[in-house]
Amino acid sequence: MGSARERWLPGAEAAGRSTPKYEQIRHDLATAIRQGDYRPGEALPSQRDLSASYGVTLMTLRQALRMLSDEGLVVQQPGRGTFVAPPRLAYQRKSLRSLSDELRGQGIDVATQVIRLGNRRPPAAVCAMLDIPDRPRALRIERLRIVDGKPAVHQVSWVPEPYAESIRQVDFTEVTLYAALAEHVGLVISRGTETIRPALVTSAAARHLRIAQGSPVFLSERVTLGIDDSPIVFDRASIAGDHMVIRAERVANTMSWSWGLPSGGN
After folding, report:
1. Domain interval for residue 84
2. Which of 102, 108, 125 lies closest to 178, judged by CA?
3. Which site among 33, 38, 56, 98 is 20 to 30 Å from 215 CA-CA?
4. Confidence of residue 159 (pLDDT cuts 50, 70, 90)
5. CATH code at 146?
6. β-pairing, 189-200 with 231-240?
Protein backbone atom coordinates (compact mmCIF):
# COMPACT_ATOMS: atom_id res chain seq x y z
CA MET A 1 0.00 0.00 0.00
CA GLY A 2 1.37 3.46 -0.91
CA SER A 3 1.99 6.07 1.71
CA ALA A 4 -0.85 8.32 2.84
CA ARG A 5 0.74 11.27 1.09
CA GLU A 6 1.12 9.33 -2.18
CA ARG A 7 -2.58 8.50 -2.19
CA TRP A 8 -3.69 11.93 -0.98
CA LEU A 9 -1.76 14.38 -3.12
CA PRO A 10 -3.54 13.80 -6.48
CA GLY A 11 -6.94 14.23 -4.88
CA ALA A 12 -5.78 17.19 -2.84
CA GLU A 13 -4.45 18.98 -5.92
CA ALA A 14 -7.63 18.26 -7.88
CA ALA A 15 -9.90 19.21 -4.99
CA GLY A 16 -8.68 22.76 -5.26
CA ARG A 17 -7.64 25.29 -2.74
CA SER A 18 -11.10 25.83 -1.25
CA THR A 19 -11.37 22.41 0.43
CA PRO A 20 -9.92 22.50 3.97
CA LYS A 21 -6.89 20.26 4.42
CA TYR A 22 -8.46 18.39 7.34
CA GLU A 23 -11.45 17.52 5.12
CA GLN A 24 -9.13 16.23 2.38
CA ILE A 25 -7.34 14.06 4.94
CA ARG A 26 -10.62 12.81 6.41
CA HIS A 27 -11.86 11.85 2.93
CA ASP A 28 -8.59 10.10 2.08
CA LEU A 29 -8.48 8.06 5.28
CA ALA A 30 -12.19 7.24 5.13
CA THR A 31 -11.75 5.97 1.57
CA ALA A 32 -8.75 3.87 2.60
CA ILE A 33 -10.72 2.34 5.50
CA ARG A 34 -13.78 1.56 3.37
CA GLN A 35 -11.62 0.05 0.64
CA GLY A 36 -9.93 -2.22 3.17
CA ASP A 37 -6.48 -0.62 3.11
CA TYR A 38 -6.84 -0.48 6.89
CA ARG A 39 -8.68 -3.45 8.41
CA PRO A 40 -11.07 -3.39 11.40
CA GLY A 41 -9.06 -3.31 14.61
CA GLU A 42 -5.87 -2.24 12.83
CA ALA A 43 -3.98 0.77 14.18
CA LEU A 44 -3.49 3.78 11.93
CA PRO A 45 0.01 5.27 11.74
CA SER A 46 0.84 7.54 14.67
CA GLN A 47 -0.44 11.11 14.61
CA ARG A 48 3.08 12.45 14.14
CA ASP A 49 3.71 10.10 11.22
CA LEU A 50 0.37 10.99 9.60
CA SER A 51 0.87 14.74 10.05
CA ALA A 52 4.35 14.48 8.53
CA SER A 53 3.06 12.31 5.68
CA TYR A 54 0.30 14.77 4.79
CA GLY A 55 2.48 17.82 5.44
CA VAL A 56 0.10 19.39 7.98
CA THR A 57 0.16 20.39 11.63
CA LEU A 58 -0.92 18.05 14.41
CA MET A 59 -3.96 20.27 15.02
CA THR A 60 -5.13 19.85 11.43
CA LEU A 61 -4.53 16.10 11.55
CA ARG A 62 -6.42 15.78 14.84
CA GLN A 63 -9.41 17.60 13.38
CA ALA A 64 -9.55 15.00 10.60
CA LEU A 65 -9.26 12.14 13.10
CA ARG A 66 -11.99 13.69 15.26
CA MET A 67 -14.33 13.72 12.26
CA LEU A 68 -13.52 10.07 11.48
CA SER A 69 -14.22 9.20 15.11
CA ASP A 70 -17.52 11.08 14.99
CA GLU A 71 -18.47 9.13 11.88
CA GLY A 72 -17.76 5.87 13.68
CA LEU A 73 -14.92 4.86 11.36
CA VAL A 74 -12.14 4.96 13.96
CA VAL A 75 -11.76 4.62 17.72
CA GLN A 76 -9.18 6.75 19.52
CA GLN A 77 -7.63 5.07 22.56
CA PRO A 78 -5.62 7.46 24.76
CA GLY A 79 -2.05 6.29 25.15
CA ARG A 80 -2.43 3.59 22.49
CA GLY A 81 -3.39 5.27 19.23
CA THR A 82 -6.16 5.37 16.65
CA PHE A 83 -7.75 2.11 15.50
CA VAL A 84 -10.19 1.23 12.73
CA ALA A 85 -13.61 0.62 14.27
CA PRO A 86 -15.33 -2.76 13.99
CA PRO A 87 -17.70 -2.98 10.99
CA ARG A 88 -20.82 -2.69 13.11
CA LEU A 89 -19.74 0.81 14.18
CA ALA A 90 -18.69 2.06 10.77
CA TYR A 91 -21.81 3.94 9.78
CA GLN A 92 -23.33 5.09 13.05
CA ARG A 93 -24.29 8.76 13.08
CA LYS A 94 -23.58 10.44 16.37
CA SER A 95 -21.42 13.30 15.19
CA LEU A 96 -21.60 17.02 15.61
CA ARG A 97 -21.98 17.90 11.93
CA SER A 98 -23.67 20.68 10.07
CA LEU A 99 -27.11 19.68 8.84
CA SER A 100 -26.01 20.19 5.23
CA ASP A 101 -23.00 17.87 5.71
CA GLU A 102 -25.21 15.26 7.32
CA LEU A 103 -27.68 15.28 4.44
CA ARG A 104 -24.97 15.29 1.78
CA GLY A 105 -23.44 12.30 3.52
CA GLN A 106 -26.69 10.46 2.80
CA GLY A 107 -26.50 11.36 -0.88
CA ILE A 108 -29.18 14.07 -0.62
CA ASP A 109 -28.78 17.16 -2.79
CA VAL A 110 -28.36 20.29 -0.65
CA ALA A 111 -27.76 23.85 -1.85
CA THR A 112 -27.20 26.90 0.36
CA GLN A 113 -28.47 30.41 -0.29
CA VAL A 114 -27.04 33.24 1.82
CA ILE A 115 -29.88 35.66 2.54
CA ARG A 116 -27.99 38.19 4.68
CA LEU A 117 -24.55 38.40 6.22
CA GLY A 118 -23.27 41.25 8.34
CA ASN A 119 -22.45 42.68 11.75
CA ARG A 120 -25.44 43.07 14.01
CA ARG A 121 -26.10 43.59 17.69
CA PRO A 122 -27.33 40.18 18.92
CA PRO A 123 -30.49 39.84 21.01
CA ALA A 124 -29.96 39.45 24.74
CA ALA A 125 -30.90 35.75 24.58
CA VAL A 126 -28.18 35.11 22.00
CA CYS A 127 -25.62 36.99 24.10
CA ALA A 128 -26.52 34.77 27.04
CA MET A 129 -26.03 31.64 24.92
CA LEU A 130 -22.65 32.86 23.66
CA ASP A 131 -21.61 34.18 27.08
CA ILE A 132 -20.82 37.65 25.74
CA PRO A 133 -21.69 40.73 27.84
CA ASP A 134 -23.03 44.13 26.89
CA ARG A 135 -24.49 43.01 23.54
CA PRO A 136 -21.45 43.80 21.33
CA ARG A 137 -21.74 43.36 17.59
CA ALA A 138 -21.37 39.84 16.18
CA LEU A 139 -21.50 38.28 12.73
CA ARG A 140 -25.03 37.25 11.77
CA ILE A 141 -25.34 34.71 8.93
CA GLU A 142 -28.82 34.05 7.60
CA ARG A 143 -29.05 31.09 5.22
CA LEU A 144 -31.65 29.01 3.41
CA ARG A 145 -31.03 25.31 2.76
CA ILE A 146 -32.56 23.98 -0.45
CA VAL A 147 -33.02 20.22 -0.08
CA ASP A 148 -33.81 18.24 -3.22
CA GLY A 149 -34.91 21.46 -4.88
CA LYS A 150 -37.27 22.57 -2.10
CA PRO A 151 -36.68 25.22 0.62
CA ALA A 152 -36.38 23.13 3.78
CA VAL A 153 -34.31 24.93 6.44
CA HIS A 154 -34.13 28.60 7.41
CA GLN A 155 -31.06 29.11 9.61
CA VAL A 156 -29.63 32.08 11.49
CA SER A 157 -26.14 31.72 12.96
CA TRP A 158 -24.32 34.13 15.27
CA VAL A 159 -20.51 34.15 15.59
CA PRO A 160 -18.87 36.48 18.15
CA GLU A 161 -15.57 38.28 17.88
CA PRO A 162 -12.70 37.63 17.62
CA TYR A 163 -13.74 34.72 15.37
CA ALA A 164 -16.15 36.71 13.23
CA GLU A 165 -13.56 39.00 11.67
CA SER A 166 -11.62 36.09 10.14
CA ILE A 167 -14.60 34.53 8.34
CA ARG A 168 -16.52 37.62 7.21
CA GLN A 169 -15.44 37.22 3.56
CA VAL A 170 -16.08 33.47 3.29
CA ASP A 171 -18.50 32.29 0.60
CA PHE A 172 -20.99 30.37 2.73
CA THR A 173 -22.81 29.07 -0.33
CA GLU A 174 -19.81 26.78 -0.84
CA VAL A 175 -18.16 26.48 2.59
CA THR A 176 -19.80 25.31 5.82
CA LEU A 177 -19.49 27.47 8.91
CA TYR A 178 -17.60 24.75 10.82
CA ALA A 179 -15.13 24.36 7.94
CA ALA A 180 -14.60 28.14 7.78
CA LEU A 181 -13.88 28.34 11.51
CA ALA A 182 -11.41 25.48 11.29
CA GLU A 183 -9.64 26.76 8.18
CA HIS A 184 -9.53 30.51 8.86
CA VAL A 185 -9.48 30.64 12.67
CA GLY A 186 -7.93 27.29 13.54
CA LEU A 187 -10.77 26.37 15.86
CA VAL A 188 -11.40 22.72 16.68
CA ILE A 189 -15.04 21.94 17.42
CA SER A 190 -15.39 19.90 20.60
CA ARG A 191 -19.09 19.45 21.28
CA GLY A 192 -22.46 21.12 21.16
CA THR A 193 -25.74 21.32 23.01
CA GLU A 194 -28.87 21.21 20.91
CA THR A 195 -32.58 21.30 21.60
CA ILE A 196 -35.23 20.45 19.02
CA ARG A 197 -38.88 21.16 19.63
CA PRO A 198 -42.07 21.64 17.62
CA ALA A 199 -42.96 25.25 16.95
CA LEU A 200 -45.00 27.48 14.67
CA VAL A 201 -42.98 29.19 11.97
CA THR A 202 -42.40 32.93 12.17
CA SER A 203 -43.42 35.22 9.34
CA ALA A 204 -39.78 35.82 8.31
CA ALA A 205 -38.90 32.12 8.13
CA ALA A 206 -42.23 31.28 6.48
CA ARG A 207 -41.53 33.70 3.65
CA HIS A 208 -38.24 32.02 2.82
CA LEU A 209 -39.54 28.49 3.32
CA ARG A 210 -42.58 29.32 1.15
CA ILE A 211 -45.04 28.02 3.69
CA ALA A 212 -47.92 29.71 5.49
CA GLN A 213 -47.16 31.71 8.61
CA GLY A 214 -47.99 29.59 11.66
CA SER A 215 -47.24 26.29 9.92
CA PRO A 216 -45.62 23.61 12.13
CA VAL A 217 -41.83 23.32 11.98
CA PHE A 218 -39.02 21.75 13.95
CA LEU A 219 -37.11 24.49 15.79
CA SER A 220 -33.48 23.60 16.44
CA GLU A 221 -31.26 25.70 18.71
CA ARG A 222 -27.61 24.71 19.05
CA VAL A 223 -24.63 26.14 20.91
CA THR A 224 -21.31 24.88 19.52
CA LEU A 225 -18.31 24.79 21.85
CA GLY A 226 -14.55 24.73 21.29
CA ILE A 227 -12.04 22.46 22.98
CA ASP A 228 -11.86 24.88 25.93
CA ASP A 229 -15.68 24.74 26.21
CA SER A 230 -16.04 28.36 25.12
CA PRO A 231 -19.14 29.08 22.99
CA ILE A 232 -18.27 29.64 19.34
CA VAL A 233 -21.56 29.61 17.43
CA PHE A 234 -25.24 29.93 18.23
CA ASP A 235 -27.63 28.56 15.59
CA ARG A 236 -31.39 28.77 15.33
CA ALA A 237 -32.96 26.79 12.49
CA SER A 238 -36.59 26.45 11.41
CA ILE A 239 -36.94 23.10 9.64
CA ALA A 240 -39.98 22.44 7.48
CA GLY A 241 -41.97 19.69 9.16
CA ASP A 242 -43.51 18.40 5.92
CA HIS A 243 -40.15 17.85 4.24
CA MET A 244 -37.79 16.56 6.92
CA VAL A 245 -37.87 13.74 9.45
CA ILE A 246 -35.75 12.71 12.43
CA ARG A 247 -34.58 9.10 12.40
CA ALA A 248 -33.28 7.44 15.55
CA GLU A 249 -31.21 4.29 15.89
CA ARG A 250 -31.20 2.57 19.24
CA VAL A 251 -28.44 0.11 20.08
CA ALA A 252 -28.41 -1.42 23.56
CA ASN A 253 -28.24 1.56 25.92
CA THR A 254 -27.23 4.19 23.34
CA MET A 255 -29.08 6.14 20.69
CA SER A 256 -28.01 8.13 17.66
CA TRP A 257 -30.22 10.25 15.44
CA SER A 258 -30.04 11.99 12.10
CA TRP A 259 -32.04 14.21 9.78
CA GLY A 260 -33.41 12.79 6.56
CA LEU A 261 -36.18 12.97 3.99
CA PRO A 262 -39.48 11.17 4.46
CA SER A 263 -39.67 7.75 2.86
CA GLY A 264 -40.89 7.92 -0.70
CA GLY A 265 -39.27 11.33 -1.38
CA ASN A 266 -41.24 14.59 -1.22
Report:
1. 4-89
2. 102
3. 98
4. very high
5. 3.40.1410.10
6. unpaired
